[in-house]
Amino acid sequence: MRGASEASARSTAPDVAGLARILADATARLAGAGVPITILFSGGLDSSVLAWILRTRPATELLTIGREGTQDLLAAQAVSAEIGLPWRARILTAEEIRDGARRWFEMVGPLREPERSVQLSLALAFESAGTRYLLLGQGADELFWGYARFRRADPWEAERLARLALEKLLSSDLPLTQRVAAACGRELLLPYLEMEVRAFVGTFSADAHCSPEESKPLLRKVARELGVPSAGQTRAKRAIQYGTGIARVLERTR
């Protein structure tokens, strides 16, 4: 019962304003000033929060990749108009996705799904970026319990699953993503994985992450605190390989 007692000792009334401030500070510090950066932007909660924080930063571009007419492109176009940062769409053809799968086969081909299509989607996004520095929302699902399996579990089990998911991200998934980025000549900026953000989120109780109505309730409260446009707060989670249509192309080529 150690996990339960430790969790119950943490705050049950999260300092949402404090978390919003820490996340905003970490994001602004990583982005710095003057150097052009690209935010990989799906129009969903994770990337909308980061884009909103940097909405007045010069030399900042939003980039969305995907098959024509896919959900990420449609959502990103609508939300980016409310945020006000320059937005660029990179429309991918099925042949370009298949070519990418062949080009990246050595690094991502042997992976199991969904890791294979996730890493390929990121590789195609990295190739499409026009700047060296890329800002991503990696880690938000693990920190804020964004996966459906967390919502199906009781709070203590969900907390354990989220901790394991974060450990997996940091130990295996993210290092591969960083190698892929380096192969494209890119460097990743990851505000959600900054130590001060992770530490502050860790002070909240399991209850802060639980909601029968929505995923990532704590991050949605942060978004409201920051004033993120409602369209960027409410879009249902859609993994990159599905929101871009890349997974469907890969499934048809097996």
Core attributes:
alpha/beta, 254 residues, Rossmann fold, 15 helices, 57% helix
What Rg, in angstroms, do the CA atoms define?
18 Å
CATH class category label = Alpha Beta
Overall morphology: globular
Largest sheet: 5 strands, parallel
The CATH architecture category equals 3-Layer(aba) Sandwich
* Low-confidence region ranges: 1-9
Q: Number of folding domains? A: 1
Spatial ordering of strands, largest sheet = 3-2-1-4-5
Q: Approximately how much beta-strand content do the residues carry?
A: 5-15%
Annotation, overall tally of beta strands: 5
Distance between the termini: 46 Å
- Any idea of the CATH topology? Rossmann fold
| Proportion of residues in helical segments | 55-70%
Along the chain, the helix and strand elements come as HHEHEHEHHHEHHHEHHHHH
CATH superfamily: HUPs
Q: Which structural class do the helices and strands define?
A: alpha/beta
DSSP summary: helix tally: 15
Write down the overall mean pLDDT.
91
